[in-house]
Design a protein that fits this description.
The complex is a heterodimer of chains A (199) and B (475). In chain A, 31% of the residues lie in helices and 17% in strands. Chain A has 199 residues and is an alpha/beta fold. The N and C termini of chain B lie far apart (65 Å). In chain B, 61% of the residues are buried. Classes of the chains: A alpha/beta (199), B alpha/beta (475). Chain A: Heterodimer of LeuC and LeuD.
């Protein structure tokens, strides 16, 4: 996973709330067996409308998506994160995210930051009036900075460390292999197994 | 010898969820989240290929093939069993088969009686039992919570993690209770109940919580009704939903292929009897609902929280105090092509979809068949009936339900996820309106430009007969 410390870039102001993962990438794009190349599926249905945000030239270089609350609810598809990343987004800011989406994003080096609605509104206005403005999302300081404005954000200390180091969860867990084996040796014998049975 | 995990805890009163959590902690403390052992990992073709690829790249194996099982559901055709027309769908299913072969994972493929929607198949095999941890790369894994298990959907990176380690690091959740007092009135189902809950909480109301559904109305639900309730926990943002196991749960599991047998059964049942929230255990949050106040419930908008009584009207954006809800409502009405104030019962539909992991089990088919028996699907309406698994389909045929649907003019299909998410050819066309027993009315979910009203199986069947949203009482 790529390390994430700090990122400075332009904002795409997506004035919508309840953007579920079906909107981020429709199911027809989920048939691939690769982990990359999902950029064409990002917001595919909305992008057919030439007035849609991402079709505006002033937001062509945006790398930070700022959106309304409940972003990424619904389906567990990690393809939603891959699509945002493949398109070029490095960070997403919203008042609140769907849990599975948030977990997926942080395992792929896409930073998701929760800021209050008032801060999101300010960032929207900034990007709508001055699309060329750059803002900074700083995971080291846990801050979002835009001009003379600074907002702090909360971030789980372990997840922050993992993201800043770009660490792979599987390797981290396998350091405790002895504990897993110990747990397994104590499991109840009647717990079901998937091996074929005679009925 | 160290005690088994569920005996090692203290005596402070605990919730059901806390007990199951505690019994699965492999590692706790320090800065890292708890590491939970996973008892059952379900796989399907859409969210697993990249996970298997990750294993291959790292030279890792599947740690516990005996706790892992796969089936084909999201992409499968429902008009025939063996021809997958779309080459990308076919490739995905072939990839799953090849991965299962390579890594030694049991798979139930098209043509097998245990092929079908993964959340129907687990309970059908008796693999879903009380007090387990169950995961799957699918958000509706919450279904399995109906047995008193902690069951939740995971992303593909987590699928890889479970394949490699049989564990998952998980931050401690909060605990919530939804208590439904009294009995559901005649004609009100589990689906109506959960749609009502989501309309109260909104799509994010359960965030970060494992929810325990309890109270008389929940106890009175059948196991399949309980699965419908738990299935939609994710639609209000909950981490998982669960229901304490009781005699109904044990009776449902007993005798299934993977149910414990003999002395194992006795040991299991003894443990299951401890799986209830202790007197005095504290929930972080509680919602209380009076079952007697409920009636058939349907959605009007583009998220599952945008629902209303079938007897009600399409709301106006101004009805919502919250500015965000108001804007969202206005957008939803536009997408749905609805006028505020229209009685829900006057909304005509083009398609009725009966199926999915929410409502594709045998009881759901029986309920709908009872309504539609001796009646006809309205002119201009296409009713599609998609059993949740091949076995549900066989059972329905054995009971003659297929004939009831076919004689009514409905389209009787093979098992799969089908139109719930339209990954296979079963899709709405732009502007088509559906009454669907599935779980999501998101824009474009059932096909590009399609408009979805979420309903119960009984309402779906009555709607098919009248051509507009209706309950059996209207017939």
């Amino acid at each position: 996973m790529d390390k994430f410390t700090t990122h400075t870039g332009c904002v795409a102001p997506l004035r919508r709330s309840n953007v579920d993962t079906d909107q981020i990438i429709p199911a027809v794009y989920l048939k691939r067996v690769t982990k990359t190349g999902f950029e064409d599926g990002l917001f595919a249905e909305w992008r057919e409308d030439e007035k849609f945000l991402l079709n505006q030239p002033e937001y062509a270089n945006a790398t930070i998506l700022v959106t309304g609350t409940e972003f990424g609810t619904g389906s567990s598809r990690e393809h939603a994160v891959w699509a945002l990343k493949d398109y070029g987004f490095k960070a997403v800011i919203a008042p609140r995210f769907g849990d599975i989406f948030r977990g997926n994003s942080l395992k792929n080096g896409l930073l998701t930051v929760e800021l209050p609605e008032a801060a999101v509104e300010e960032l929207w206005l900034l990007a709508e009036t001055h699309p060329e403005s750059e803002i900074t999302v700083d995971l080291v300081a846990c801050e979002v900075r835009a001009g003379d404005r600074t907002w702090g954000f909360e971030f789980d200390e372990f997840l922050r460390w993992r993201m800043m180091e770009g660490l792979d969860d599987v390797a981290l867990t396998l350091r405790d292999e002895d504990k897993i084996a110990g747990f397994e040796s104590n499991r109840d014998a009647w717990r079901p197994r998937t091996l074929p049975v005679q009925v | 010898m160290s005690p088994t995990p569920h005996e090692s805890e203290g005596t402070a009163p605990r919730t059901l969820a806390q007990k199951v959590w505690d019994a699965h902690v492999v590692r706790t403390g320090g800065q890292q989240p708890d590491l939970l052992y996973i008892d059952l990992h379900l796989l399907h073709e859409v969210t697993s290929p990249q996970a298997f690829d990750g294993l291959r790249q790292a030279g890792r194996k599947v740690r516990r093939t005996d706790l892992t099982i796969a089936t084909e559901d999201h992409n499968t055709p429902t008009d025939n069993l063996f021809t997958i027309a779309d080459p990308t769908s076919r490739k995905q299913i072939e990839t799953l088969r090849a991965n299962c072969e390579e890594f030694g994972v049991r798979i139930h493929s098209l043509g097998d009686e245990n092929q079908g929607v993964v959340h129907v198949v687990g309970p059908q095999l008796g693999l879903t039992q009380p007090g387990m941890t169950v995961v799957c790369g699918d958000s509706h894994t919450s279904t399995h919570g109906a047995f008193g298990s902690i069951a939740f959907g995971i992303g593909t990176s987590e699928v890889e993690h479970v394949l490699a380690t049989q564990t998952l690091p998980q931050a401690k959740p909060k605990f919530m209770a939804v208590t439904v007092n009294g009995s559901l009135p005649e004609g009100v189902s589990a689906k109506d109940l959960i749609l009502k809950v989501i309309s109260i909480t909104g799509t994010g109301g359960g965030k970060g919580h494992i929810v325990e559904y309890r109270g008389q109305a929940i106890e009175e639900l059948s196991m399949e009704g309980r699965m419908t309730v738990c299935n939609m926990s994710i639609e209000w943002g909950a981490k998982a939903g669960m229901i304490a196991p009781d005699e109904k749960t044990a009776a449902y599991v007993k005798g299934r292929a993977h149910a414990p047998k003999g002395e194992d059964w006795d040991a299991a049942v003894e443990y299951w009897s401890t799986l209830k929230t202790d007197e005095g255990a504290v929930f972080d949050k509680e919602i209380v609902i009076d079952a007697a106040s409920l009636s058939p419930f349907v959605t009007w908008g583009t998220n599952p929280g945008q629902g209303v009584e079938l007897s009600g009207n399409v709301p106006a954006p101004e009805d919502f105090a919250d500015p965000i809800a108001r804007t969202t409502a206005a957008g939803a009405l536009e997408y749905m092509g609805l006028q505020a104030g229209t009685p829900m019962r006057e909304i005509g539909v083009d398609v009725v979809f009966l199926g999915s992991c929410t409502n594709g089990r045998i009881e759901d088919l029986r309920t709908a068949a009872e309504v539609i028996k001796g009646r006809k699907v309205a002119e201009g309406v296409n009713m599609m009936v998609v059993p949740g698994s091949a076995k549900v389909r066989e059972q329905a045929i054995a009971e003659g339900l297929d004939k009831v649907f076919i004689e009514a003019g409905a389209d009787w299909r093979f098992a799969g996820c089908s139109m719930c998410l339209g990954m296979n050819p079963d899709q709405l066309t732009p502007g088509q309106r559906a009454a669907s027993t599935s779980n999501r009315n998101f824009e474009g979910r059932q096909g590009k430009g399609g408009r979805t009203h979420l309903v119960s199986p009984a309402v779906a069947a009555a709607t098919a007969v009248t051509g507009h949203l209706a309950s059996p009482a209207d017939l």
